[in-house]
Amino acid sequence: MRKNLLTLLFAAFLSQIAIIDTISIAAEERQVIDIAGLPVKGPANASVTIIVFSDYLCPVCNGLEPVLHQVLVKYPNDVKLVNKLCPYHDFSREAVEAAFAAWDQGKFWEYHDLLFYNQLVLNKPKFIEIARELHLDLKRFNKKMKDPAIQKLIDRDMADVNRLGIVGTPTVYINGKVLKDRSLQGFQAAIEGELNK
Questions:
Q1: Cys staple from 150: which of 14, 100, 175, 182, with CB 3.0 to 4.6 Å?
Q2: Does 79 share its domain with 1?
Q3: What are phi and psi of 80, to 5 degrees?
Q4: What's the structural domain count of the chain?
Q5: Interior CA angle at 37 toward 93 and 116, to 5°?
Q6: How far apart are CA 93 and CA 53, in angstroms?
Q7: How far is residue 157 from each of residues 75, 118, 164, measured CA to CA in Å?
Q8: Domain that holds residue 8
Q9: CA dist 32 → 29, 144, 161 (Å)
Q10: In the predicted structure, residue 19 carries a pLDDT above the cut 90
Q11: Which residues lie closer than 8 Å to 89 by C-beta, 6 or more apart?
Q12: DSSP conformation letters of 24-71
C-alpha cells in the first residue's frame, strides 16, 4: 500500500514538473495575444506592444504602474500599452467592469489610475465615487458596467490567462514575449532589442 502511495505521489510530482516545463517553454516563445477592442495608451501604430496582465487589487501590479509610466515617457512614439485585466481578488471583476464603463465615456486611463491609487479602499461605493470625481454620467456608467460586451472582454482576457498558463499578476509581454525583468532596465533592454531588429 505504501509503495503504491509513493508511486502515485512521484507520478503526481513528475506531472507537475511537466506542466511547469510546458509553461516555461511557452514563456520563451512569441505568443499571439488578441488585444482587439481594448483601450490602448500610446500610438496605435507603435513598433512595440506591451501587454500587461494585471489586477486592480494586486499590490505588485500597483507597484509596476510607475515603471510603465516611465517607459511610455521614454518611448512616446515607439511603444503602446494594453492592459488585460485579470479579476483574481474580491471586487476585482467589479473594478474591471467599472474601468471599462469609464472607457465608454473616454476616461479609461484616468479611471484605471484612480483604481490603483485607491487600491486599499476599493469597494462598490468607491467605484461610484471615482466616477463622480471624473464627472462621468452615473446613469450611463452604471448601465455600462452590466453590458454583456464588457463581460465578454473580461472572459476573453481570462481565457488568455488560462491558455498562456499565467499563474500570477503582473505578467508582461513585449511583442508577444514574456518579460522576466520588470525593472525599467529590463523594459528598456527588451524594447531596444525589438526596435533594433
A1: 100
A2: no
A3: -125, 150
A4: 2
A5: 40
A6: 14
A7: 26, 23, 11
A8: 1-30
A9: 10, 29, 12
A10: no
A11: 55, 57, 58
A12: HHHHHSPPP---TTS-EES-TT-SEEEEEEE-TT-HHHHHHHHHHHHH
pLDDT at 57 over 70: yes
Helix (H, G, I), strand (E, B) or coil at 178: strand
Task: Quote the CA–CA distance of 155 and 150 in Å, as a whole number.
Answer: 9
Query: Which H helix or E strand runs over 42?
Result: none
Distance from C-alpha of 52 to C-alpha of 99, rounded to nearest angstrom: 15
Q: What pLDDT was estimated at residue 13? A: 41
Query: What is the per-residue pLDDT across 170-195, written as a single tens digit (0 to 9) for each?
Result: 999 999 999 999 999 999 999 999 99
The CATH code of the domain that includes 84 is 3.40.30.10
Res 2 pLDDT > 90: no
- Whether 35 is covered by a domain: the verdict is no
Q: Flag whether 164 is in a domain.
A: yes
| Secondary structure of residue 9 in the 3-state scheme | helix
Give the three-class secondary structure for 140.
Answer: helix
Q: Answer yes or no: are the C-beta atoms of 182 and 74 closer than 8 Å.
A: no
